[in-house]
Amino acid sequence: MDVWWESGTGEAVVCDAGMRGCPICSGTPPERRRFDLVVSYKYWQLFSLFGFVRNRQYSRVCSNCHNALNELIPKAELDSMLQGKKDPIPLLLRKGWMAWVALCVVGIGVAFYLSDQKSKDVAKHLASPRVGQIYLADLSKISNGYPSQPAYGPMKLVRIGNDGYHFVTARFSYDKKRGVDHDLSKMKSDSYYDTEDEDVVTREELTRLGNSGVIYDFVE
Ligand SMILES: [Zn+2]
Fold it and tell me: What DSSP character marks residue 217?
């Protein structure tokens, strides 16, 4: 499961942190060393691309022995050191999550658009149904005999009478729409339906079932 995201730690030099004595390598008499301001951080990254950085810690690191001073840099001092400095952590690690959020928003928008288009198609189709047409619906909202909700499956228009549209519904149903998709080839056959029992739907009901998404698709 861990292949699509990874976490790790990183270190990067922010800027020069001045000259001072190093408790590890300066020796006696102490020689002054040049220090770097170094940021260490943890990151999460999705698909090696969309990153998120947390736990930034800044320390002064000796450029000679590469040991960090065991001291907390006061916030005000740190802020003034960071002033005008470029953040050395790679942009994708820091801001990648924003691109991910943007992609998700776009994805959701596209999904809404497509589902809106689909429901318009269904509505158009329901406006002039023809005998033999198969619709996909939550059958538990249309017909008795489906004890669990939802009960996704096909319904087939078998007759148009004065009392309304006569449908036969599937013998089997699914609690997920994708279950129905697996049966698309089988549902052309009459044996897929409970042909003993017809459900009659009026013109108004048919429109309402389409608009409310109970009838959510049709089979081409
Ligand atoms: Zn040192």
Answer: E
Q: Where are the domains of the chain?
A: 5-100, 115-218
Mean pLDDT of the chain: 93
pLDDT of residue 27: 85
CA of 218 to the centre of ligand 1 (A): 74
Burial class (CB in 10 A: 0-12, 13-18, 19+), 198: middle
Nearest CA among 56, 45, 46, 51 for reference residue 11: 56
User: Which residues, by Cβ under 5 Å, contact ligand 1, an ion?
Assistant: 22, 24-25, 62, 64-65
pTM attached to this predicted model = 0.60
- Round to whole Å and give the CA distance between 212 and 191: 29
CA Rg value for the chain: 33
Write out the H or E segment, with its range, that includes residue 114: helix 91-127
Q: What are phi and psi of 7, to 5 degrees?
A: -130, 160
